[in-house]
Design a protein that fits this description.
This protein is α+β, with helices and mostly antiparallel strands. Helices cover 32% and strands 42% of the residues. It is built from two helices and five strands, in the order E-H-E-E-E-E-H. Strands 1-5-4-3-2 form a five-stranded antiparallel β-sheet. A hairpin with a 3-residue loop joins strand 4 and strand 5.
Length: 106
């Protein structure tokens, strides 16, 4: 068997905005975040398809990818982390949840 080289992460945040408004807030928020963290993030790629954002980027030499799915009452982020980042998984999930809560006013 092949060794695993990636670990999964997942977090979700409830909201009361509905899909459309939550999606608009998150799009604006992600624009700001990409500017604020531009010195730490490279190779940023993102693509929205309705209420689903597919993303990938490199930070501190680590490649991270995943999806952000906006639902009627929650926003969910899930993706893959390199095993080198596994020790930080909990911190990463909490940080993402905190940023989503701030963006959605939760």
């Amino acid at each position: 068997t092949r060794p695993l080289s990636m670990a999964s992460f997942r977090t979700e945040v409830p909201h009361g905005l509905g899909k459309e408004q939550a999606t608009q807030r998150l799009k604006a928020f992600l624009e700001r975040v990409s500017q604020v963290y531009q010195e730490h993030v490279t190779h940023l790629e993102s693509s929205w398809d309705a209420q689903t954002l597919r993303f990938s980027f490199t930070t501190y030499g680590l490649n991270i990818s995943g999806t952000l799915i906006v639902e009627d009452d929650r926003a969910r982020v899930e993706g893959k982390l390199p095993l080198a980042a596994l020790a930080f998984k909990g911190k990463i999930e909490k940080s993402i949840a905190s940023e989503l809560e701030r963006a959605l006013g939760s």
